[in-house]
Amino acid sequence: MIPFLDRLENAKRVLIAGCGGGFDVYAGVPIALQLMAVGKEVFFANSSFTNLALCGGERLGPILWRVDGQSGELPYFPEKWLAEWLVARGRPARLYAFAKSGVQPLRAAFETVMKRHRIDLMILIDGGTDSILFGDEPGLGSVAEDAVSMVAACAAAGENVLLAAIGFGIDHHHGVSHHSCLENVARLIRDGGFLGAFSVVSGAPEADAFLDLVEYANQRQPQHPSIVCNSIASALRGEFGNHHATNRTSGSELFINPLMAQYWTFEARRVVANMTYAAELATTEQLEDARRVIESAREQLELRPRQPIPL
């Protein structure tokens, strides 16, 4: 009934890759643990906001590092906290981090990891929904990192890339229109790119593990807890409305809700096919190049009006 889960059945070696960077890869841990439980080999990767040149990990390419629990201590290092957490719970920490870049270097880094481990399926994980923005929405949030990851992953792996976005509503904090997001999902349904939706259920082992991981990261990095992961964790605990798990969101109004614990899944290449700036992004070398491409494209578009979701 859920095509996304059917695709997982046939995979043997899966790369769980954070789409927008930061803590995005954490949002893929429930899927990763379920895959491990049925004997799949799982590897992790993340577009990092850390200065990887100082991380002490093994450098495998111009923007590619291998990260483990022995990597150096840095104030902001979600990848290391994940590696520590995995090892402490008896799981292998096969984890890679990508420095900020445009599409071309990231494509090469994806190809290196995929060849190294004979990956047959990549799952891009977005904490939020700015990965399914096409360019003509009234607000894009922090879309550049997500768009670069999407275009690079599809260039590296073609049809063997899926997207799972969790945290519906979180990006309102960054100006994203969720009316537009739902409109985009409808278009992807028509295009055959929507692979179904399902929830992480409170009390399930994968949900408990995710809550434990978020709390571990909060302790390891108390000055910069993840807004996205703590919002998803709040939804899993049954919080609702303007609930703030971290003072980083103080002064804003949140809408914590059960939909934040639901994965929306897609064929990544179908999403990229709807991006108005995908072809131009494909040639970029630096992240700043990608931002300029997106800004230039939007100057030539008629943006959709911002509309509320009817109640």
Describe the protein:
By secondary structure, the protein is an alpha/beta fold. The chain has one domain (3-299): Rossmann fold, CATH 3.40.50. It contains eleven helices and nine strands. It has helices at residues 3-9, 29-37, 78-88, 103-117, 143-157, 178-191, 205-220, 227-236, 268-274, 278-281, 287-299; strands spanning 13-18, 41-47, 58-61, 64-67, 95-98, 121-127, 161-166, 194-199, 262-267. The protein has a nine-stranded mixed β-sheet with strand order 3-4-5-2-1-6-7-9-8, with helices on both faces. Helix 2 links the parallel strand 1 (13-18) and strand 2 (41-47). It is globular, with a radius of gyration of 18 Å. The relative contact order is 0.17.
Q: Identify the quaternary structure here.
A: single chain
Strand fraction equals 15-25%
Number of strands: 9
> Would you tell me the overall average pLDDT?
94
Short description:
The protein is an alpha/beta fold. It contains eleven helices and nine strands. The chain has a nine-stranded mixed beta sheet, with helices on both faces.
Layout of SSEs?
Elements: H1 3-9, E1 13-18, H2 29-37, E2 41-47, E3 58-61, E4 64-67, H3 78-88, E5 95-98, H4 103-117, E6 121-127, H5 143-157, E7 161-166, H6 178-191, E8 194-199, H7 205-220, H8 227-236, E9 262-267, H9 268-274, H10 278-281, H11 287-299
Parallel strand pairs: 1-2, 1-6, 2-5, 6-7
Antiparallel strand pairs: 3-4, 4-5, 7-9, 8-9
Helix pairs in contact: 2-7, 3-7, 4-5, 5-9, 7-8
